Amino acid sequence: MTDPRFIRNFSIIAHIDHGKTTLSDRLLQRNGAVEMREMHEQMLDDMDLERERGITIKARAVTLRYQHTDGNEYTFNLIDTPGHVDFSYEVSRSLAACEGAILVVDATQGVEAQTLANSYLAIQNDLDILPVINKIDLPSAEPERVREQIENVIGLDAHDAVLASAKAGIGVDEILDKIVSHIAAPKGNERAPLRALLFDSWYDSYRGVMLLVRVVDGEVRRGMRIRMLSTGRVYEVTEMGLFTPKVKPVDRLGVGEVGFLGLLHMDIIQERLEREFNLELLTSAPGVRYRVTKTDGEVVEIENPQKMPDPAYISSIEEPFLEVTILTTDEFVGPILALAIDRRGQQKKLEYVAANRVMIVYEMPLNEVILDFFDKLKSISRGYASLDYQFLGYRASELVKMDILVNGEPLDALSLIVHKDKAYARGKMLVDKMKEFIPRQMFEVALQAAIGNRVIARETVKPLRKNVLAKCYGGDITRKRKLLEKQKEGKKRMKRVGKVEIPQEAFLAVLKID
């Protein structure tokens, strides 16, 4: 086993597209973890979906050997983490397994919302932070401005931040040296009973359940029986090893070591399930957990709108609120403020963090953020705004349950809980959007948005109609009327027994109604 004094456990944290994964690739390459002929971009992103989207979705751990100038060989356990706001939980789990973090900031973009959020996560975990200003080889790079932002906005000392270009390999050797000098070695008692942190898991078709763990105290050995504290269940360790990034079997893991044991943010989740498990999915509106106080004093938590109690028995409804932090350039402040106000936001702060960089802080309901707020924000700012959010707690709001009916039958997957003041507008937009996607039938299809028994919006999908008057050339008008009335009666009978097939696009309409 490796002496804990020569182990360094660290993550690389950054805003999306600031070069975090490219830096991971360079560290692997410089330490000889992969040969040049095996090297490709996004080495630690082994899901097809990650490579296609150019983002990291799941945390990855890899063990590297580094020969330092002091003559000692160090073991680096690098945990690559996602940079997108929707995967912040993955980041928090990974940071809990580390003593340090490399903070990568783009020299052309500066400090963004997720840079700030991930930095605060690292500070809360009491990690040693090594700032790296990346992409200094680009013509628009402003490393000194970014150094100032790191100090003023985040509050970190950046006077000795590494100036680097992961793509060009500039500064990589300096980063490796500073990992040894700036990040603390892990602490633990190798003679104590086993304690380990499980920070990721998945199911392998051949190996079974796989766990990524960081050993805190003691050691874990092949064949050992371990207990999960969260469930109390006992398992036998059948296989264990390191990712280098190839699988390297080992017989034991000691204090401070990271390895695997063999015993799983909307369209990303859907595509993963469809690709990896061959499932056909029906996408519904994302759920928010509401807190409902009934007239008898009972408090219930509701995730599914169908479980909402009768309005007559509801005393109050509370919904979760977030503190939303937006970083943008000053030219987009007006449209962003308008968007936040439209989403029932309450402004808490607006301040300039640099000459043309503005930080905007709003408190707003999760209900208004979860649908498409991030997409709208990117659209109105032409991609120059970044977002982070923190949960604040529950607050009382005037909320109602809105049902969508197709020919009088409620469509459970499209039921929504909305604010009373926005119910009509949202219901109207939703039935309008659904009308575009539901194909015409042989009978009329009525689309309605309703609150209780009150219909607040309606659209109609006109039926397909055969021209029953085609063979009537002139003649008595009453004959034509009889033919049309007969056709109308037939359509009514069809409507009573006919069923409407709702395409997946109609369900997705609920995500695109604003």
Provide the fold topology.
Layout: E1 7-14, H1 20-30, H2 48-53, E2 60-67, E3 73-80, H3 88-95, E4 100-106, H4 113-124, E5 128-134, H5 143-154, E6 162-163, H6 172-182, E7 195-204, E8 208-217, E9 220-221, E10 225-227, E11 234-236, E12 239-243, E13 247-249, E14 252-253, E15 258-262, H7 267-277, E16 290-294, E17 299-302, E18 314-329, H8 333-342, E19 346-352, E20 357-365, H9 366-369, H10 373-380, E21 386-397, E22 399-406, E23 409-410, E24 416-419, H11 423-437, E25 445-451, E26 454-461, H12 477-497, H13 504-508
Parallel strand pairs: 1-3, 1-4, 4-5, 5-6
Antiparallel strand pairs: 2-3, 7-8, 8-15, 9-14, 10-11, 12-13, 12-15, 16-17, 16-18, 18-20, 18-21, 19-20, 22-23, 22-24, 22-25, 25-26
